[in-house]
Amino acid sequence: MRHAREAPIELALARPVRTVADARDLPGGTAWEPKWDGMRVLALADGAATALRSRHGEDLTLAFPEVVAAVAAHLPAGTALDGELVVRRDGRVDFGALQHRLATRRAAGYAARHAPAEYLAFDLLLREHVDLREQPLLDRRRALAELAASWPAALSLSPLTADADVAAGWFRDLAGTGADGLVAKGLDQPYRGGARDWLKVKHRSAVDLVATAVTGPLDQPDALLLALPVGGELVPVGRSRPVGAVAAITLARVLTPVAGGGAAAPGSTVATAIAPLVVEVSADLRWSRGALAGPAQFLRARPELHPDEVEPEPAGRSGV
């Protein structure tokens, strides 16, 4: 066991599979956990310097003071957790409420009282400055469970099971509580930052695509040009329907224009190129020769995801 270096911690990743049955036979046996509909966050315990970091390194510390206080009070300094940050409404995880917390971080104290966040921990990477990432998942989870024994409401241990029938039940039953699928991990696997050693299977109520441009002004976008990652490139597959005035306000906050980025939209509409942005659209899609047969219904943006995580062949898409 070695002590942690000061280098930033890179998070482990998952690659998509189509069904629960495809997520088997991982090293040491497969364990499953719910894939919560929140934001992946690294919790770094260090007393008064405790911090929350998004998977892309964004500092979220000031936005979630109630979670930071719980981590600082209940974890020893030099401890790092991997987990999901969520906000619950009416008994279910509400991603929209979480996004609202991020958008109103100047009023974080008020928001913490009226829409408190919860950190669902699923991995222990460092414990009192000792690096545990080379240990197998089973050992890391045992150590995490020890730490979680006295946690308050703002901190929770995300459940894990090695029983395939229990996992299938979670996949079926937890959709109504805000879990959008399962993540499968090998019990003997170390924690490899940047590697896609894990597997994930999502419910098909939504499909991830990549937005590469928008029509209309950036502060009030009208529609999105959509693509899929194929062979290391983003291949255009169509566009969205108009996103609507309310959704456009939220969408505008996460758009990053590309310098000199004009783009030709389907139907000869001029569009503005943006940094690739993962978005969810309705799974009720019709495909024709590998492209959308009609506009997709935009549901929401997922800026915490990387375009490489998008499945290049969603259900129903034929080859190009």
Describe the structure.
The chain has 320 residues and is an alpha+beta fold. Helices cover 18% and strands 37% of the residues. It has 6 helices and 20 strands. Strands 1, 4, 5, 6, 7, 8, 9 and 10 form an 8-stranded mixed sheet that branches. Strands 13, 14, 15, 16, 17 and 20 form a 6-stranded antiparallel sheet that branches. Strands 2-12-11-3 form a 4-stranded mixed sheet, covered by helices on one side. The chain is globular, with a radius of gyration of 20 Å. The termini are far apart. The N terminus is likely disordered.
Query: Number of helical segments?
Result: 6
Beta percentage is 35-45%
Measure the end-to-end span.
49 Å
Q: What's the mean pLDDT score? A: 88
**Strands, count:** 20
The topology string of helices and strands comes to: EEEEEHEEHHEEHEHEEEEEHEEEEE
> Strand pairing plus helix content: what structural class?
alpha+beta
Low-confidence stretches: 1-6
In which range does the helix fraction lie? 10-25%
Global shape: globular
> Largest sheet, if any?
8 strands, mixed
Radius of gyration: 20 Å
